[in-house]
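Duplicate of #3305? Posting structure anyway:
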């Protein structure tokens, strides 16, 4: 029947199919293959999927099992609330990383995922892969004059922390430059011991090269447990960082401990400029506040969870905030709270779904979906997880059109 339809009609039908079905359609005939692998078709399919009222946005998770619980290598899965889809697969590219290193999640954008090995700055392995079409590329090694950065691993009871060399901070980000239709990987290296401008390097997927850029970067530092992945939305990368001790507005808590100024460091991928965004309710009298950026499924909203500890009452509260008007820090709005005494008394807030459910990792490592209004708990089916990295995700056809250096991987 399709042989008798005009190619324009066939194209309209293909645009409405899910990615995995379209991949199968490339084998139907040469005409369909040529159409589907056109860059314009790939971009149009993604844009239609994002703009559709029932688009298949999901949350993408990359996580690790504890090293003492069998295979320590990473796994990944996605949760699609609307389609009620859930699958777990072994991270397929672990063989690209050395066995004595940990592969970490940098970020996800437009169906592509960036993972990296942070063990050594000069020899770090960085990959970009598409789990939907099973294609990937390995980035060339960055060119830098900086000294190698090592990460020392220290095992604790519930998680595996990574402690960066105390002299340096290094963060990565991955996102999309919509003006130039270009995916970019950004790496920042900050010397804690000097006031020098941090080194900023940008990899362009279009040009396939790394370049250093001269740009003003707000002074920042990372806390010991700060996750190194970023949140990409509205054309910018976002990291939650803190100001080093040179910050002039020094504050102390009731016990004399230093309160650092924490903020969101944002990098515009089109203009390639940095800015600061203030956090909501970051300093409360008599209360310790720890903030964390939250990915939001299929949303352009910036979200933060504040873990507030009231010392006098020995009470934990998790306050979830959303920036209603992106870029306007006066628009931070608290949408709901979670009592820290629930669910066994210890949990980590990971993300928000499009149906306003909260993704939690419980004390034992299980992943659950919580409805704060109905107070219901829905197990995802995973237990004994260690570190978890989450991002909003939508499937795409990128890498399907046989670009240079793109390789295939098996399930």
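Output from current build:
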């Amino acid at each position: 029947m399709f042989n008798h339809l005009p190619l324009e009609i066939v194209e309209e039908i293909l645009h409405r199919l899910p990615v995995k079905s379209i991949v199968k359609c490339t084998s139907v005939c040469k005409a369909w293959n040529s159409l589907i692998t056109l860059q314009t078709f790939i971009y149009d399919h993604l844009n239609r999927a994002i703009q559709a009222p029932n688009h298949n946005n999901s949350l993408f998770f990359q996580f690790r099992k504890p090293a003492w619980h069998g295979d320590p290598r990473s796994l990944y899965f996605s949760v699609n609330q609307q389609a009620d889809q859930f699958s777990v697969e072994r991270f397929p590219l672990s063989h690209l990383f050395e066995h004595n290193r940990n592969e970490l999640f940098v970020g996800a954008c437009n169906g592509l995922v960036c993972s990296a090995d942070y063990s050594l700055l000069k020899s770090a392995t960085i990959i970009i892969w598409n789990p939907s079409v099973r294609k990937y590329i390995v980035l060339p090694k960055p060119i830098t004059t900086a000294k190698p950065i090592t990460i020392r691993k220290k095992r604790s009871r519930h998680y595996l922390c990574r402690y960066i060399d105390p002299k340096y901070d290094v963060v990565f980000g991955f996102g999309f430059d919509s003006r130039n239709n270009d995916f970019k990987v950004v790496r920042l290296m900050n010397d804690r011991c000097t006031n020098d401008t941090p080194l900023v390097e940008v990899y362009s997927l279009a040009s396939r090269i790394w370049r250093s850029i001269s740009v003003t970067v707000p002074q920042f530092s990372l806390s010991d447990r700060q996750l190194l992945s970023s949140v990409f939305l509205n054309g910018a990368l976002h990291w939650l960082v803190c100001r080093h001790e040179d910050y002039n507005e020094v504050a102390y808590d009731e016990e004399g401990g230093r309160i650092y100024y924490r903020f969101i460091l944002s990098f515009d991928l089109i203009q390639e400029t940095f800015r600061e965004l203030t956090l909501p309710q970051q300093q409360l009298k008599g209360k310790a506040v720890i903030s964390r950026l939250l990915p939001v499924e299929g949303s352009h909203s910036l979200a933060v969870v504040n873990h507030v500890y009231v010392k006098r009452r020995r009470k934990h509260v998790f306050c979830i905030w959303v920036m209603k008007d992106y870029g306007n820090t006066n628009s931070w709005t608290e949408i709901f709270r979670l009592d820290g005494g629930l669910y066994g008394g210890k949990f980590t807030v990971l993300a928000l779904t499009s149906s306003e459910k909260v993704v939690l990792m419980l004390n034992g490592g299980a992943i659950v979906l919580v409805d704060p209004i109905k107070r219901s708990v829905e197990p995802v089916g995973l237990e004994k997880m260690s570190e978890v990295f989450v991002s909003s995700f939508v499937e795409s056809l990128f890498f399907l059109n046989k670009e240079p250096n793109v390789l295939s991987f098996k399930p």
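Confirmed duplicate; merging threads. The helical segments are 7-15, 19-25, 30-36, 39-51. The longest strand covers residues 168-177.
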